[in-house]
Amino acid sequence: MGTTKQAAKRDRQSKVFRAKNRAIKTRIKNITKEFESETAIEKRSEILKKAFSILDKASKKNVIHHRTAARKKSVLSRQLNAAQPEDKIEPGELGESQET
């Protein structure tokens, strides 16, 4: 407890802010774990949209740094793209000439 009124108020405020920040950070961790544990690509893309929203809101409220949010979003996107099968394009499909 602070010795002045101002210090006492800051102490009360910091307890409230800490609780809110911890809840948001926990939500980020939970959505990340949910994304990584999901195997279906369609479901993963839905979870990714939610994760982007949560990260953007946390960044906007200064719970996490905006570059930290961008980095986490990038990692999740790369994981989603790595899980998707790559389409093989055969020569000639895009109007290219096949020279033999």
* Radius of gyration from the alpha-carbon trace, in angstroms: 22 Å
- Helices, by number, come to 3
**Major β-sheet, in short?**
none
CATH class, please? Mainly Alpha
Q: Which percent range describes the beta-strand content?
A: under 5%
Order of helices and strands: HHH
Nutshell version of this structure?
By secondary structure, the chain is mainly α. It has helices at 5-37, 41-60, 66-83.
Characteristic terms for this protein:
100 residues; mainly alpha; Methane Monooxygenase Hydroxylase, Chain G, domain 1; 3 helices
What's the topology here?
Layout (H helix, E strand, L loop, with lengths): L4 H33 L3 H20 L5 H18 L17
Helix pairs in contact: 1-2, 2-3
Structure in words:
There is one protein chain. The chain has 100 residues and is mainly alpha-helical. The protein has a single domain, classed as Ribosomal protein S20 (Methane Monooxygenase Hydroxylase, Chain G, domain 1), CATH 1.20.58.110. It has 3 helices and no strands. Helix 2 (41-60) runs antiparallel to helix 3 (66-83). It is elongated and about 85 Å long. 8% of the residues are buried. The model has no long low-confidence stretch (mean pLDDT 90).
